[in-house]
Amino acid sequence: MTDTPAPPLDPCASPATADALLRASPLPPLEARILLTHVLGWRRTQLITRGDEPLEAANVERYRALEARRVAGEPVAQLVGAREFFGLEFEVTPHVLIPRPETELLVETALAALENRPRPRVLDLGTGTGAIAVALASTRPDALVWALDRSADALAVAARNGARLLDARRPGGAVTFLQSDWYDSLDAAVRFDAIVSNPPYIASGDPHLLEGDLRFEPRGALTDEADGLSAIRAIIAGAPARLAAGGVLWIEHGYDQAEALRALLSAGGFAQVRSQRDLAGIERISGGVLSSGTSNGRA
Ligand code: GLN
């Protein structure tokens, strides 16, 4: 916000322009620009080049409605129905967690682990928007990717994102979207080279659930309704039976959970257990390699 007072926006006096709407907005400038370009179908630079153009009344009304919803707390990504992740534009609805930039670390780490494996099999548990699975599939066209979620509404969003963002002729084929409570509905015979997940890891009583965007995101994508580690325990416990020899498991977690994750991974039969920090310097993901001595059902 600027400290010069906003000019009055009387629609009868002079037609509203992008300049005037942005100047009068109570929102952080970036958010106001995202909402306005969404309404107008403009690129960000056109807010400058066409800033003094009179706008259609219907567009002004649509913008004002979105602005009011944002002021009331609704996430920008839900208002515009999209969020960029790993260079791809994902559809977002209230049924899915909004992709976060720190989750790109999970994608990059999985990609590094798969570097020398041709046609790797990858499993994303609790896929939500499909952001992790689709980003991996997009970067590794040869990968065979499974994306699971227990929410049918989330899977529908993920499947649309996969269909829109992936090349239908990619050698790895289409991503397999499957409704499943963690591993439950998965074909028991398939062995994966990498399992990745951004599970609900917020403890049920955490006050963050009542703040910001989280208030509008699906609760089941955020909290396990327990201590924050129950989904993570289930994922780690089921992973050895699903991983191929030398397969990796990487899980995103909360800022204070890295030590617990490393202990669970070590106890669960994983070797080379480590955590990685996100751009904010927070230990954000932990993972390991299935150690050769661990039974993975292949005897
Ligand atoms: N990273 C999210 C947040 O704390 C939580 C996502 C999750 O629970 N997987 O805002």
What does this molecule look like?
Substrate binds at residues 198-201. Its EC number is 2.1.1.297. This is Release factor glutamine methyltransferase. The chain contains eleven helices and nine strands. The longest helix has 15 residues, at 57-71. The strands form two sheets. A seven-stranded mixed β-sheet has the order 5-4-3-6-7-9-8, with helices on both faces. A two-stranded antiparallel sheet has the order 1-2. The chain has helices at 18-24, 29-40, 46-49, 57-71, 76-80, 104-113, 131-139, 152-165, 219-222, 230-238, 258-267, and strands spanning 82-85, 88-91, 121-125, 144-149, 176-179, 192-197, 243-252, 270-277, 283-290. It folds into two domains: 1-72, Helicase, Ruva Protein, domain 3; 94-290, Vaccinia Virus protein VP39 (Rossmann fold).
CATH first level of the largest domain: Alpha Beta
Number of domains: 2
Q: What is the CATH architecture assignment of the largest domain? A: 3-Layer(aba) Sandwich
Mean pLDDT: 94
In terms of structural class, how would the helical and strand content be classed? alpha/beta
Span between N and C termini? 64 Å
CATH topology term of the largest domain: Rossmann fold
Order of helices and strands: HHHHHEEHEHEHEEHHEHEE
Which superfamily, in CATH terms, is the homologous superfamily of the largest domain?
Vaccinia Virus protein VP39
Helix tally equals 11
Q: Roughly how much helix do the residues carry, as a percent range?
A: 25-40%
Strand order of the largest sheet: 5-4-3-6-7-9-8
- Give the beta-strand count: 9
Low-confidence stretches: none
Bound molecules: glutamine
- Gyration radius from CA atoms, angstroms: 22 Å
* Strand portion: 15-25%
**Shape call:** elongated
Largest sheet: 7 strands, mixed
